[in-house]
Specification:
- The protein folds into three domains: about 5-110, Distorted Sandwich (Cation-dependent Mannose-6-phosphate Receptor, Chain A), CATH 2.70.130; about 125-175, no CATH class; about 180-210.
- The protein is built from four helices and ten strands, in the order E-E-E-E-E-E-E-E-E-E-H-H-H-H.
- It has helices spanning about 125-140, 145-160, 165-180, 185-205; strands at about 15-20, 20-25, 30-35, 45-55, 60-65, 70, 75, 80-85, 90-100, 100-110.
- The strands form two sheets. An eight-stranded mixed sheet has the order 1-2-3-4-5-8-10-9, with no helix packed on it. A two-stranded antiparallel ribbon has the order 6-7.
- A hairpin with a 2-residue loop joins strand 1 (about 15-20) and strand 2.
- The protein is flat.
- The two termini are about 45 Å apart.
- This is N-acetylglucosamine-1-phosphotransferase subunit gamma.
């Protein structure tokens, strides 16, 4: 459970909405389900998404993404829950803007205060400092607006508010490898270890009658 602390009181609760023959149930920080209320023997009942990450726009929490629900043709069902100000906690509207992608509107008095969904106050002091530094760099025109947004995205991912994409994870891993080769000594040590591993692998290949083709550069 990550995000605005005052919304955590919604955790463990569920809110229902009935439209036509379907009953939708939204359980904040947990999942969204759909139940077909008919007497058909194969009435649908399943998961439209599991709590995944926040939707952040203009440095404000604007919605919750529920992803990796039940399979739907070649993809998984997913749902975006929009948080809007309301007199009571209730699921007010459900739609399916595109196939297997659902949109829910959840009303709650917990988001009525103009500062209730700001991202900055939910961050640790270290990440707030990182954000402050990015603001200063942008003000001094040392980074572009695009560079500033990239730093913010990294901050949100580090805070766990957004899930890092596979590309970002690969980039992080490559950075770690780069750091390991900062000095000649480290590079030499790694080279020796890799050479030993290569020798062992060649022996194994030979034992199984598999030809090895390569050069010293490899």
């Amino acid at each position: 459970v990550l995000g605005p602390a005052h919304l955590f009181r919604l955790a463990g609760k569920c809110f229902s909405f009935v439209e036509s023959t379907y009953k939708y149930e939204f359980c904040p920080f947990h999942n969204v389900t759909q139940h077909e209320q008919t007497f058909r023997w194969n009435a649908y009942s399943g998961i439209l998404g599991i709590w995944h990450e926040w939707e952040i726009d203009n440095n404000t929490f604007v919605g919750m993404w529920m992803r990796e629900g039940d399979s739907c043709e070649t993809k998984s069902r997913q749902t975006k829950v929009h948080l809007v100000c309301g007199k009571s906690n209730k699921l007010a509207y459900v739609s399916e803007p595109s196939t297997c992608v659902y949109s829910l509107t959840f009303e709650t008095p917990l988001v009525c205060h103009p500062h209730s969904l700001l991202v900055y106050p939910t961050l640790t002091e270290a990440l707030q400092r990182k954000w402050d530094e990015a603001e200063q760099l942008l003000y001094d025109e040392l980074i572009t607006d695009q560079g500033y947004k990239k730093i913010l995205k990294e901050i949100f991912e580090e805070a766990g508010l957004l899930k890092a994409t596979e590309e970002n994870e690969v980039e992080k891993q490559s950075k770690k490898v780069t750091l390991e080769f900062e000095t000649v000594e480290k590079c030499s040590k790694e080279y020796r270890q890799l050479s030993e591993e290569m020798k062992k692998l060649r022996v194994l290949l030979g034992q199984h009658g598999i030809a090895y083709r390569g050069n010293s550069g490899e």
